[in-house]
């Protein structure tokens, strides 16, 4: 089968035009800076955290089932950092850092004698690292394969392993350094918290919140979580408050004295706002959360350029076609080659 | 008295008890108090002293659990204890005598041993309405204690009720029950809290006193440090599960059966100071103490915890636990994150790699190689920075 020059050019022009018209974005570069309608998230209050790591242990077990963020075909046990004695894998799991096997980690800040909780000098504080589920996630905007997506309804940022090409742009783009690569795997994937989105269908919610005994991690609608955080910041330190456990609207409460909060709510403006927000008695900078983080949605940085790609493409296409038409205006049909 | 003489006399005096058993007991007591093994010999000498330490045991608002706990100790056994080790001159539960006869024995002992006897108190002392809510032989507990205490060489409050009021002082505390230290505010009172307390903590305290003629080291609440200086949480056999985040969610669930941490069930181990995990209870073998058999610690030995906070309410952690098993914000040096170090190491690797590659491929002339070294790595590291 031979394709005539005319048919070929027609095809190219048609395809280009179609692309132009349809506007299919290869990368979802432009994103809403507004919260999705049913946005859910997590409020982590470091002053309530006791460092029991229940969230970490249960994150692993709950995400190692089909649909979970750690699940791989044929998986029977959660992936643990260090293999224990044979037959007792994972008996001792003490991850030091987020990794392809750890989506959620409690770390500690300590200073001097480390006696008082939630105090910067001679004190200590726990803090939690996991995906914060940005309202406009940079990882989604940079992914050339569309492997990272943001759920338009609940706003959880999730990952499609079958689309991933392993370029790890997401790791570079994330201002919080969250996505991790499975360096030890022959078929590596990128791992990060997906807000337990596979559990919503069963009426469950994020495992770290469900298994937190003190209410340090609570799940709920972002709007409610923000209100709760704002209310806690108005409370007088030392007074008692009924902190909700597990979910923000839970009837189960834990009465505890209110600690002195150092900064405001983390995650209202950081990177354009995140769906997971945090409170702490020690400044977030001391906890390793960078102060210099941009306070605008990061995809807008690249959008200024990415938005022009289509027009550059269209310009080159039409320009080239025009030049060709001009330079070849006297060519006779069939005289080429 | 030389050592062998001491042991010979012990053997004669104790009849059925072998030298080995006796030495074992003395050494166990010494070790239990954190004393050197040689102290066992001094304890042995003190015990075989023909004049056994007189003990007067007063019981007030109590349930006899403290005495029962003592009865169940089996090294020494009860008869060994009250016949050979101490001279229990008065105890409402254990005295053979009763009524006025017993009261007379007590008065006699106090008169004879003025300033020498050890006073053990169990039970709280009601103070409302001049203490009329607990009377023995027609006299109030308050009167009896105030009358006996000034003549005692040492005062030991046995159990939580005697230590701070315990269950008798639990809200709303209708009799305004108080502990011995509160009633005898101007005296040193050794408190051995617990409900019931471990009998060995009491025995160790008494033997320490009769051996060295002074009280063991006490903490601000009057508790002997050898038994109450550590949180239950620190020595708990289930502690590794706490550190690893494995908790029983409900009684009888999978993790509960596997022996996971009981914190979520309301275990008060993290706020209770006692030696329960080390000494265990009731001498019935390994793992026989509340947490060992699967029930969360109730906090009976800690004022403000046992009898005052709800049974299954979460405990407040007293300190950073565990201190070492966490990643840190700045693990190596403040302000230098591991990411930056990795980046630096990576850049160095790229420079070396680029130079090596340039040499191997023999890019251009020597001049070119130099230029490559200058510019190539620079470009590479800029790219690496993005990575």
Task: Label this structure with key terms.
heterodimer; A: 337 residues; alpha+beta; Alpha-Beta Plaits; three-stranded mixed β-sheet; 12 strands; 25% helix; 15% strand; B: 387 residues; alpha/beta; Rossmann fold; Cytochrome-c3 Hydrogenase, Chain A, domain 2; 4 domains; five-stranded parallel β-sheet; two-stranded antiparallel ribbon; 10 strands; elongated
Largest sheet of chain A: 3 strands, mixed
Radius of gyration of chain A equals 25 Å
What is the helix fraction of residues of chain B, given as a range?
40-55%
Number of domains of chain A: 1
How many beta strands in the DSSP annotation of chain A? 12
Structural description of this entry:
The complex is a heterodimer of chains A (337) and B (387). Chain A has one domain: Alpha-Beta Plaits (2-Layer Sandwich). The two termini of chain A are 17 Å apart. Chain A is of the alpha+beta class. Helix content of chain A is 25%, strand content 15%. Chain A has helices at 5-22, 54-63, 138-142, 169-173, 207-210, 222-234, 299-327, and strands at 40-45, 105-110, 116-117, 123-129, 148-150, 157-159, 180-181, 190-191, 217-221, 240-244, 253-257, 277-279. Helix content of chain B is 42%, strand content 9%. Chain B folds into four domains: 1-49, no CATH class; 51-227, Rossmann fold (3-Layer(aba) Sandwich), CATH 3.40.50.700; 230-326, Cytochrome-c3 hydrogenase, C-terminal domain (Cytochrome-c3 Hydrogenase, Chain A, domain 2), CATH 4.10.480; 338-386, no CATH class. A five-stranded parallel β-sheet of chain B has the order 2-1-3-7-9, with helices on both faces. In chain B, strands 4-8 form a two-stranded antiparallel sheet. Chain B has a two-stranded antiparallel ribbon with strand order 5-6. The longest helix of chain B is centred in the last third of the chain and has 24 residues, at 338-361. Chain A binds chain B through residues 50-58, 91-97, 105-110, 114-115, 117, 124, 126-127, 168, 172, 177, 211, 213-214, 254, 256, 286-288, and chain B through 240, 242-247, 249, 261, 263-264, 314, 316-317, 319-323, 325-331, 337-339, 386-387. β2 of chain A pairs parallel with β10 (327-328) of chain B, so a sheet runs across the interface.
